[in-house]
Amino acid sequence: MSGYVGRFAPSPSAGLHAGSLVAALGSWLDARVHRGVWLVRIEDVDSRRSARGADRLILQQLAACGLHPDGTVWWQSRRGEAYAQALQRLREQGLAYACSCSRRDLERAGATLAPGGERVYPGTCREGARGAPRAWRLRLPDGAGAEVRWRCARLGEQCERVDRSVGDFVLQRADGDWAYQLAVVVDDAAQQVSDVVRGEDLASSTARQMLLQRALGVPTPNYLHLPLVRGADGRKLSKSEGAAVVQPGPRALCDAARVLGLQVDAGSVEQVLRQALAQWPARRRQWPSAPRETAR
Ligand SMILES: [Zn+2]
Asked: Is the pTM of this model over 0.90?
């Protein structure tokens, strides 16, 4: 046992698509090469975005690709008690506060739009909600305390001022659903995840998750953000192209391995995985690329 614990954590809005298979394969390879444990966690906290049966389909697709989890699969929809305890701990320390703002309130307050399309929360309810509480937010450290420096094994050094990029962010939504960021941090800590290997589209969540880890007093894992799937012409896939559910098997695995920069030939699933495993350590050593900065 190396102490390495990795995980693949898909959102079950549909079955695995090309991009999520890359994340599954990359996280599996990294766990195997480190002689660690590879866990699968279904991230279905967002009840409106979860499709019925998609979780089962994902588990079948993983099995058909030879990617078998070590240990029991977790469903975030069954973890509400743990998230409630974490929020309670933050409230007791004065690190979470109730917010009564509606979307329109934020528009009216002139809250700036962050690159992701969300509004940067202007801190309206920091000193007390003005109406009926709707959501719970994390109280960020003031000023430079909200600056997070972190390192991705592929993207290099990163720096983000979370107060400028998102502000005090939501932990529990007005509809009662738990926020993705809180669920991920609580579960990574509970599962003792040492290494988070996931798609680059989630890199923008890392600084928020690290601030939550600090607030909850849990360790920060290592991070590796994998390349995204691009169209033949190198541009980002459209929503419909990107959302197509993959037919699991050696061909889909080969495609995923090539996105990771591995040279594999189609054969059986076992052959593809063996070739990919043999190349993974060298591939990993070629990273990180030059440092770059995320949204600020
Ligand atoms: Zn508010």
From this structure: yes
Distance from Cα 294 to the centre of ligand 1, integer Å: 26
Domains of the chain: 5-77+192-203+217-285 (3.40.50.620), 81-172 (3.90.800.10)
Residue 56 in tokens:
């089962």
Cα of 219 vs centre of ligand 1, distance in Å, is 29
pLDDT in tens, 154-171: 999 999 999 999 999 999
Residue 163: which of 121, 127, 129, 112 has the closest Cα?
121
In the reported structure, the alpha carbon of residue 136 is separated from the centroid of ligand 1 by a whole-number distance in angstroms of 9
pLDDT tens string 98-124: 999 988 888 888 778 776 677 899 999
Q: How far, in Å, from the CA of 139 to the mean position of ligand 1?
A: 12
Please enumerate in sequence order all residues whose Cβ is within 8 A of that of 171, keeping only pairs 6 or more positions apart, or say none.
87, 90, 96, 135, 136, 137, 138, 178, 179, 181, 182
Residues 6+ apart with CB under 8 A from 22: 199, 226, 227, 228, 229, 256, 259, 260
145 CB-near residues (< 8 Å, 6+ apart): none
